Amino acid sequence: MVFVDESGFSLIPYVAKTWAPVGQTPVQIHQGLCPKFSAISGVTPPWKLYIQVHKDTIATDQPVEFLQHLLRHIRRRPIMVFWDGGRPHHSDETRAFLRAHPRIEAQRFPGYSPELNPDE
C-alpha cells in the first residue's frame, strides 16, 4: 500500500506581514527569478518514503515514471496505490500503464479529503 501525492515548490520570497514607517510603502527586493520544482512522493504504512523531484510541473509523464519507480523498488508483491483525483492520475497514458501492469492497483481518494492521505 502506497499513499501518493505531488507538491510544487516556488523559491520566490513570500512575506505575509511586514512593516514600514507611516506613509512609506514597504518594498521587497529579490532577484526576480522564478525558480521552482515539483516532487511526487509515496509513503507506505511502515513509513518507507519513495520520492522523485522534477524541474517542471507534474504532468502526465511523471506519475507513470513514479509508478515505474515503485515497480523497481517494491518487488514480488502487488502494489496498491492511493492518490487524489488529479488530472495526471487519470490521463490516457497513466490508465494505459496501469492496464499494462496488473501488479499495480490504483484507488482514488474522495474529493476534498486530504486528511485521508498521510503523504499530504
The best one-word shape is elongated
Distance between the termini: 15 Å
Q: What's the CATH architecture name?
A: 2-Layer Sandwich
CATH topology: Nucleotidyltransferase, domain 5
- The averaged pLDDT comes out at 88
For the sheet with most strands, the description reads: 5 strands, mixed
Identify the CATH class. Answer: Alpha Beta
Helix content: 10-25%
Determine the strand fraction and express it as a percent band: 25-35%
**Sheet with the most strands: spatial strand order:** 3-2-1-4-5
**Alpha-beta classification:** alpha/beta
Number of strands: 5
- Tell me the CATH superfamily: Ribonuclease H-like superfamily/Ribonuclease H
Describe what this molecule looks like in 3D:
The structure is a single chain. The model has no long low-confidence stretch (mean pLDDT 88). Helix content is 18%, strand content 28%. It has one domain: Nucleotidyltransferase, domain 5. The protein has helices at residues 61-73, 92-100; strands spanning 2-10, 36-43, 49-54, 79-83, 104-108. Strands 3-2-1-4-5 form a five-stranded mixed beta sheet, with helices on one face. By secondary structure, the chain is of the alpha/beta class. It is elongated and about 65 Å long. The longest helix has 13 residues, at 61-73.
